[in-house]
Amino acid sequence: MKPFDILHARPFGFTRDETAAYRDRILEDVRWASSGWIMSSSLSLPAHRQWLRSFDWTSEIPREAVCICVDGIPCLWRREWLRDQLSEWNNRLPAARFLQDDLMPNDANQIFRMEMPASAGSGMGVSGSRNITSRMPLSQLHDRECIVPLIAATKQKPPHMHDPSQQTASSVTRVKPAVSILMSVHNMRDTMGWSIRSVLAQSSEDWELIIGDDASDDDSLEEACFYSDPRIKILLHSRNRGKAIMMNRLLEEARGRYILELDGDDWLAPDTVRLLSEALDQAPEAGMATALYGWWIRTRQMGPVWKGTISSANPPEQTRSSRHFAQAHPLVPRMYRAASLKAVGGWWDREDRFGRIFEDIDLTSRLLEHHLLVLVPAVLYHRVIYGSSISQRSGDLFPAWQKSR
């Protein structure tokens, strides 16, 4: 009898529907499989598959193990367990290709970890003690390093749908949080679920998330309500008025001493809230904190793909006035001291195209004319760029915006 069946379904896309379709294809293959173990061809490496075929790994597997990881990569699952998990799976991910990382058991005793000897790969270009994962593309390694920790941190908190009509002010925790995370969305149903999941993965729980739906005509409101957590509050606009006006409305509801912006197609690293708020705690003269950010490009087939690390700020001892913003590149991430933010009047409260495109640069330039900026030297935000976005299509309007200020 063959030791395992290999699933040949390939992940495609980043939308909620595409991930669900991929789940359904895997589930169908699992139901037709005859072996006791199932391997994914899209996540495991060719060297793993060749080695596992020839190695008597079955004699060492504990009875309670349902998942086998080789070199830290989940490669095999017990068929019955995988079938049951797929039948119930309904989570939010940045792309379909991360589904199998979300199928790791919560119980560490159910995971059997193996390391492929370097000698086993000698015929495949692996030398010395070099780990097989070093043969993975660099972008794929960064993908896993940035995304798998968020998946692991939130697997203990299964989501539950709830009725939007039940979302009231009384459902929000009464204790004032340190940080208010503000998210303005318009037609972001395919990405904002993962953004919210990154908030739930924070190492600090001293936050509230206030989501403003700016008259979306897709299922953005449904996505906002997907995670049932008393720290999440949802506001609605009946007419689309632009991000600046929505952010000012969210600011009115915010109770934290710090304000953190999060776009509905980006996500936070697990320590973002803790490290940025600590930086402002330790620098009372600063009105704003920022950090490094991960730069991702959205692709149609693979979803977000890692491109590199970017620092959009000067060293922390330097101020940034409006003259520093000579290009249309905002500071990312942006955590404000709430008192400083309100002192400069919040966002540019206008509905024209400039109020929808350069509202972030306008606000930070005004605020940093009066306050210092502190920089945390860590990647705390992940920014996804895609060519069809309004910000990417409107860069040539920046000179006109400068003249209009």
Automatic annotation (TrEMBL):
Pfam families, alphabetized: Glycos_transf_2
Annotated keywords: Transferase
One of the record's GO molecular function terms: transferase activity
Highest taxon of the lineage: Bacteria
Domain Glycosyltransferase 2-like: 180-304
Record-given protein name: Glycosyl transferase family 2
Organism: Paenibacillus ihbetae
Origin organism lineage: Bacteria, Bacillati, Bacillota, Bacilli, Bacillales
